[in-house]
Amino acid sequence: MSGDADRRHPVDGDIGQQEMAPSKKGAVLVDGIILNGPTTDAKAGEKFVEEACRLIMDEVVRKATDIHEKVCEWQSPEQLKQLLDLEMRDTGEPQDRLLELCQDVIRYSVKTNHPRFFNQLYAGLDYYSLVARFITEALNPSVYTYEVSPVFLLVEEAVLKKMIEFIGWKEGDGIFNPGGSVSNMYAMNLARYKYCPNIKEKGLSGLPRFVVFTSAESHYSMKKAASFLGIGAENVCFVETDGRGKMIPAELEKQVWQAREEGAAPFLVCATSGTTVLGAFDPLDEIADICERHGLWLHVDDLLKKCYSANASYLFQQDKFYDVSYDTGDKSIQCSRRPDAFKFWMIWKALGTLGLEERVNRALALSRYLVDEIKKREGFKLLMEPEYANICFWYIPPSLREMEEGPEFWAKLNLVAPAIKERMMKKGSLMLGYQPHRGKVNFFRQVVISPQVRREDMDFLLDEIDLLGRDM
């Protein structure tokens, strides 16, 4: 039993609790505002969090693999404005109303974790990374110094180290970014800094015209990065590709020589391993040889901090009591940065390297299965044999199957994919992207990514497209 002495002298974990508790006496007012005590109702807040988490479990997590649920509850923008209470008011609203709003948000949002969501290059629900996101949202860390994010900086370091080992490098550096577009911008700026370090302080004045080379199949963010960095979108040279969407090395070298003859300053080649639409892989070895001959950027270690460091003395003090090499925020263009590596780390810990490998192998196997089914079925036609998990194909409705493949045929086929997409969205049965591409009229692009996808979903995809389009 505890005696009076124990109560007068609490254990270390309880020291100062009485001093920390807000006083109920002697209220302090400033400009009519009471400063004593908390400003929020903790009990009510905790209850709201519990009920909202229960709602998420019931309406999102548990339904993630239910094929009987709709992928989306389609509403037009004007209809959705009427269905949702979007107005912010002067006074707060009761929690039961907030929970109703949460329910509406879930109901009318696209279920990207549905097994039949194939619309973009992301899909599916991973339970471990979801928990990781819950943790980081609750803790609300900002990854720039070790003192505010000790765990998450070490996690990012561990993940980067492991990824560098997998690539086969003995050393290297990296940073987790919010997406591929920002990563491409980092790469372009690092390459320019390597070519001309003075640009960090002196700017672009007096420098030659910088030129970037990338595949004609590359991601559109390369032009955005050039525009953002002051290089100019017109100075992104798109290198022609072969029939499978791979950069042609001879065309690259030709354009490099041409740029030099024009007095420009080539400094970067951006190759692609898995293009956005066709999933093509550029011939990296041949491209690397060209970069080496011409002194162009392809890979350089240890430039992130040199390129981006601003040495903010109020944040990155060098006289801290710990190893300041862990204050990695100075190698980022951002200040506050989310701990995105934690999600990857959590799933890697849960599945292991072999488990992640199995997910990739399964996705590729499902892709091969879909290709075989497309070849078997009347009315479906591949653009080309896929190299990766990107499956590009046309659906040709019965009314066009006997028509000669001339201008009229292709003009009519161009209308098919958008019309089927509209029907599937309004029905809510699945979501699949389509696009035209370099002279090819609109076609569907299916990419297997979600771990929830099964062979049955591949069959359903083709069955549903045929069902929605057979009367066209």
TrEMBL record:
The keyword NAD does not apply. Its cofactor is pyridoxal 5'-phosphate. Gene3D superfamilies: 3.90.1150.170, Aspartate Aminotransferase, domain 1, Type I PLP-dependent aspartate aminotransferase-like (Major domain). One of its GO terms (biological process) is carboxylic acid metabolic process. GO terms for molecular function: carboxy-lyase activity; pyridoxal phosphate binding. It comes from the Eukaryota. SUPFAM superfamilies: PLP-dependent transferases. Keywords: Acetylation, Decarboxylase, Lyase, Pyridoxal phosphate. It holds the Pfam family Pyridoxal_deC. Residues 1-23 are annotated as: Disordered. Residues 1-12 have a biased composition (Basic and acidic residues). Homodimer. Belongs to the group II decarboxylase family. This is Glutamate decarboxylase like 1. The lineage of its organism: Eukaryota, Metazoa, Chordata, Craniata, Vertebrata. The gene is GADL1.
